[in-house]
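Subject: Interface between my chains keeps coming out wrong

I've been trying for a while to get a sensible model of this assembly. When I model each chain on its own everything looks fine, but I need the whole thing in one frame so I can look at the contacts. Pasting all components below, labels as-is. Any help appreciated, I'm running out of ideas.
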Amino acid sequence: MTLTSSLNAGPAPVAPAAGRGRSAGALDRRIEAFALPLGALVAGLAVFALFLMMVGKSPAEFYGLVFKAGFGTAFSWENTLARASPLLLAALCVAIPARLGLVVIGGEGAIVLGGVAAGAFGMYLTGLGSSMGILGMAVSAICVGGVWIGLVGALRYRRGVNETISSLLLAYIAIALMNHFVEGPLRDPASLNKPSTAPLEDAYRIGAMPGLDVHGGLAVGILACVFSWILIERTAWGFSARIVGGNIRAAQIQGLPVGWLMTGFCALAGGFAGLAGMLEVAAVHGSANGSLAGGYGYTGILIAFLARHNMLAIIPVAVLLAGFEASSGLIQRRMDLPDATILVLQGIVFISILISETFTGRLGLSTLWRKTS
Amino acid sequence: MSMIFTPTRRTFIKSAAALAGATALGGLGAGAAAAAGLTVGFIYVGPKDDFGYNQAHAEGAAAVKAMDGVTVIEEENVPETVDCQKTMESMINFDGATLLFPTSFGYFDPHILEVAAKQPDVRFQHAGGMWNADKHPKNVGSYFGYIGMGQYLNGIAAAHATKTRKIGFVAAKPIPQVLLNINSFLLGARSVDPEITCQVIFTGEWSLAVKEAEATNALADQGVDVITCHVDGPKVVIETAAGRGAFVCGYHADQTSLAPEKYLTGAEWNWAKVYTDMVKTTLDGGTIDNFVRGGLADGFIKMSPLGPAVPEAGRKQFEAVKAEILKGGFAAIKGPLKDNGGKVIAEAGQSFVETDVALESMDYLVEGVIGSLS
Amino acid sequence: MSETDLGVWTVLIAMLGGAIRVSTPYIFVSLGECLTERSGRINLGLEGTLVFGAMSGYAIAYETGSAWAGVLAAALAGTLFGLFHGWVCKLPKVNDIAIGIALMLLGMGLAFFFGKPYIQPVAPDLPTIALGAWSSSPQVEAALRINVLFVVGIALAFFIAWMLRSTRIGLVIRVVGDSADAARAMGISVDRVRLLATAAGGALAGIGGAYLSLYYPGSWNEGVSSGQGLMAVALVIFARWSPVNCIWAALLFGAAGALGPALQSVGVSSGYYLSYAAPYVLTLILLIATSSTTRAVRGAPGELSITK
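Reply #2:
Try treating it as a single job with all components included. I did that and got this:
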């Protein structure tokens, strides 16, 4: 089980430390959980600096611009946070199944179908008022996204279909369905050169949060991360899910409903992705159209892995990556570097963090700890 | 690629950025740098060297770059999501841009409208969008060209080259702009030989290389021997069609170099003229009209030079019709005309001239086009 | 022959032609993945390798004027990606699937980064063999205009099948893939075998990419791959890890992909998005039909993480 053991390299599914209080081992693991990815991040940034020097560019200028455009001004923060909003939910769609040992990479499919469901709801069920309208759009998006990824979990359990592949195939199929619907049955005849569903009425739109030019989706994303963390780390259901992720045969012997857990948690993950699609429709586009396939589902994979599938860690990681992306434009304009530069940076940082897993439990933190305390 | 900074420009950008950075916290940032000259931002949805849509706009940007007192900033591969809004704001806040050309159609609603409402001092110029005085802000303008006329001329050249009387069109999506091009291509060809038919294949995406190649092959398999297209980057269609021995007509930009023997002619944008005019108006302190349209006569579009495969009779007719169009008031869509389902589009005597706004909401394929819209 | 008969034949011939044209990258990538997986590892990063192969192949072909030099360069680049994957995955606790996803990102990033200057130029194409010269029908002739790499790919599939079945090297790969412990007991270096198998797999994926940019569709741009590298991983599963079956899987997938344009060319254009999704739907159905939880997947290497 190479996959599941390393996926759960973060917080362990078994909790031997709970009864014995905070032992040095548990503390080590906590420090390590921060120090290791942080060190890997710095190492990745350093390797990328070498890459920049090889192509004759200044790393100092590059990181200066990343800071300035990602985090340096009030506008930079708005830019970063606006980009982070859909990524939080997209990352949950990867991280939640990962805690059951499932690698789901097709969240993009649930995002686009969630968007279409929300667009269709807003088109046909008009005049419900703001709260009912937005709630209705959210529920329909969550249901469609949930069914889509829930299917992936069910197929895995019932038929043994590999979830990585099936979720990918379903993502391609979902994008085809979205295009079919927004350019066919659901198309607003007035959307001439940009086929879309009918524009949402104003009451159904989600605006900016007070005092910040970022739409309310950011708050929804953060709440979803906190909710998921509590669910996975602090409830019996989450505990069962982690046991499935740790050792599926042990979970079966314990009599856990493995099939239901897989299907249910996948459905929850897909529901979050669907919600991301609904937020894109209600807060950004104002209708469902082909722009929904913006690649957030794929960036979500990266974020979930970098956060080591810890639901709370997703928040800072998503903000960091969104900051990288926010700076992409300025880097194109000031340094004459192509837009793919950020992709290279992401790839290097990703690999660096994955390699760092090999040092888990091998840093000798215990001895260091005893010496310093 | 072509953004090589001269020392003076770099200094300017740095100081402008410093100013913009300092004022951004206060919510301003645009006005600060304006005194130092005009900064114009161009945003592309794909790579700016795609032999197509984006390249046509980038060639316009290159012409603006050569003007005095103007700084051009560019960004490519910007998707039609919140990314586009933030790119515009970033150009305004960090570079002091006061004139923006976000060139993809999908940028208009909601992205440009959203940012324009927040940035009343910045001018937004959009290709293809239908600006409406009642609905849209005054600092937004839309412009477009009657490129259907170019496809009509493509059709005339095609009619003189085809042996099988079957011509073909690889199209991205069945939207009005594309439908007008398909219909004009066929009607141009039918003005020479009324027996000609045009087979259309929709790929569903603006840029998808393998599907475009498959569509081109499927057309060639049907015996189609002249092919044109409306996708973002025509390179794949042109090369594949020429490889199958078919003649090709270009679109967006000049693709002669991709198939010199097989290239008949092409309908090209001439954004260099449009953009330099607009920038000049701004530099002179004037205001660009909110709703700008133009055709061959106005220099908005142009035709690629005729290729060696167009016979003498074809050249003559091509030039004659082109001269006719240059006079203005030309109508490709005129009665009696039916769509390919048999519904009457125009009665005898009725015609839609190139400037008719009704053409911008076209939702039919004319008789003789093989294909359907859904 | 009636009108409808003609339509059906046209679609079938177009699907045959499409299968041959479109399948080659799938054949190469799935053969590469098959080899890697038979040694007990999975490399999800072949999409990145494919895209980088497409870029480097095109660039070198353009710079040298030789399409074959491009293919060689793509294979070399693919080997390097494979070696890196193999080397990283031998470190303890490193997850091969995740590394694959990361390498996919890096491969695409590097390809787009260095590929900008090559979007415009025209590089030489790979040569073709006119197998359909006997036919008077231009459609049949075009469908059977076959690229050399297609032939090489098929020959390679049979060669790899023979190698795995009847040679010592093949036996070593199979033992390593089925049980690392057994292999170690026999004194085989498990890590080295997997390293080499992943490198070879990368080389094949690189060649698959070169086919895309140098033959079909025959130009380099950022949209040249439509997920061929990822889909090949799925094809290996329903090819049951048999190299010869990989050919059939790739041909079937290619033919399904040609269905959409072919249907439109005979006038059936309603719901084209759905007919374009046919290859993915077909793959999913086949995957569901052939998978099972009650018995071990036949032909699956015992060490493979995705089938455990």
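Reply #3:
Confirming on my end. Residues 33 and 96 of chain B are 5 Å apart (CA to CA).
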